[in-house]
Amino acid sequence: MSFEQQLKKVLTQDGFLAALDQSGGSTPKALKLYGIDESSYSGEEAMYTKVHEMRSRIVTSPGFNGDRILGAILFENTMDRKIEGKGSAQYLWEQKRVVPFLKVDKGLAAEADGVQMMKDMPELDGLLARAKKAGVFGTKMRSVIKQASADGIQRVVAQQFEVGMRILDAGLVPIIEPEVDIGCPDKAEAEEVLEEVIIAHLDELEADQIVMLKLTLPDADDLYTRCIEHPQVVRVVALSGGYSRLKANARLARNNGMIASFSRALSEGLSAKQSDAEFNAALDEAIESIFEASRT
């Protein structure tokens, strides 16, 4: 029953996704921005414990709930841990009415033809089965486009949809994320090519095959309207991509129907050194600003 409830929530309610899915490579940077230096922990397990404490503090904060937040994207290590005695995905849905998603990609391959494809995922089927059992609703996987290379973009999107079909077969909803790097020298052109390629793939889906899209905030406002209106698309969410929260919110507000899926822009200004009152107030302010930008 919860899958249908979660789908209805993501489809119809105002709100945004909280991206809490920094993985091994980006975790030290996320912790440093939060005020925890690498010298304060030793080894991968200690690092993941620290970042889980940070994520738990965010998720258990009073302002973090399903009124303004549709879903949260978790890293595999976070899914496998508990929040207040419950599995992280279970806690999100049962306590906060926030729909749980899981990052499933294993990072990026080396750049070739202006893009970075996803690395192979030999353990994907097992991970999807575990995610389903844990109560996860959907998944997220990221590729990166660095040049307006038509061939490269075709390959990135084809790989995303190919893996997406396996995720659908496992009973989960895939978030397809072909990110255009905000430093791409021909970003607007790359985004135009990407939009056309995505539409072509969406048009090939069966009536019962639904996906979500996670895309860089485009240079041309409302570029992704056809994607937003496509019958096979649940939601189109935007990544902040390195923009500050102020810039990301301003760009997002100009793109009707797109909602946020912010990571750095959500946690910007949060610190381990803040008192709970200060932390909760800062997070609530961030959530409200992103929520309002997502309502346009």
Please, could you describe this protein's structure?
With 296 residues, the chain is α/β, with parallel strands linked by helices. The protein has a single domain (2-293), classed as TIM Barrel (Alpha-Beta Barrel), CATH 3.20.20.70. It is built from 12 helices and 11 strands. It has helices at residues 2-12, 27-33, 44-60, 76-79, 88-96, 124-134, 150-169, 187-202, 225-229, 245-253, 264-267, 276-293, and strands spanning 16-20, 69-74, 82-83, 86-87, 99-103, 115-116, 138-145, 173-180, 211-216, 233-239, 259-262. Helix 2 (27-33) packs across helix 3, helix 7 (150-169) crosses helix 8 (187-202) and helix 10 (245-253) runs parallel beside helix 12 (276-293). The radius of gyration is 18 Å and the shape is globular. It starts with a helix and ends with a helix.
